[in-house]
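cron nightly-structures :: item 1 of 1
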Amino acid sequence: MSILMKQILLFSLLPISLLSLLLLFRLPNHHHHIQHDPFSPLSNPFPPPPKIAYFISGTNNDGPRIFRLLQATYHPRNYYLLHLDRFASDKQRDQLARMVTSVQIFVVGGNVNVIEKSNPVNEEGSSPLALNLHAAAILLRWRKDWDWFVNLAASDYPLIPQDDFLHILSFLPRELNFIEHETNITMKDYQRIMEVIVDPRLYLQSAGRMFMGDRKRSMPNAFRFFTGSPHVILSHKLVEFVVLGWESFPRTLLLYFTNTRYSHKSYFQTLAGNSEFSHTVINSNLRFTNVDAPSAEDHQSKRPMDFKRMLGSGAAFAGNFPVDDPIMDIIDSVLLNRGKGMVAPGAWCLGRTWGGRVSCSEWGDINILRPGPAAKRFEILLLNIIGSTSFRSSLVDQ
């Protein structure tokens, strides 16, 4: 059911203060070199915004959540790959595909694709890593002009409109990788590194149970082990390095992590930390983490405070939202300006207004971004992350 997208170039007008982001990097970046027409008063002196390749995955009964997340993050410049794992039925996959094709802008844009064949996933094993690598390979084959790969779960949700997100990222070198990682490995981490596990969902159609070997292996000495969040924002070049494997290291590392518990929380961290990409890593995945998640008893009373913290964080995404969490409606209303059942509007959106919300039933000038207050909050977050030694990647010094 694949529908290909016409090439779109999108330019943004950025505040000059964002130029300070570029001064913090010494990475060569040819994407920011633009030829200007001295006789054209309308020429744009700023770099074009990037294209994001989103991979959104879920499990049984997650189709509506994935579709809502698609609507909340949609922009005709990006690419979207959707997946329901084997715990979901074929009927649910068909329903998700029909929901996508029922929206005219998705069909016209041709930038949304649903993986027809399900993949089995065991969160504790190595099959989640295999799923992410599979998705990255599909996105590389589908389109080659995207800049960053972003993996999202059905329980995630954006905290920033895409106009603001692309607007700010246009000032960053495309070589950067946002990978949250830990250098201090705990005893629990050491234990799972030495354990040898077999995840049968890598090679069986049925959902077999994971089992552990009766012997433990030694700690690796050919590379240093890192761990962190499974949610990453990877550059196109790093994804090519992993999938195309022009060096043997990604394949060697993959053989090791195939038999490692929770490998999707360590593979990209370890790969970047032991390769040429160590200088490109920012120790953050631009997500809001709620360390004081409310319990079931006080769930409703603490949610407004959570929203204020989300808003103040300047983060691009947050996760672990319960199904139909009321705070997502607040995010839609206050941050995304998204009406129920509608795509989050951007400058490309025109159409009728329903209850103060733009329906995006018609397309305007897709060469324009119209960022709002969220762009400034996101800019401040990036400046703090990049300027703080506590958030800089510690991989370089290893």
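cron nightly-structures :: done
Residues 1-42, 294-302 have pLDDT under 50 and may be disordered.
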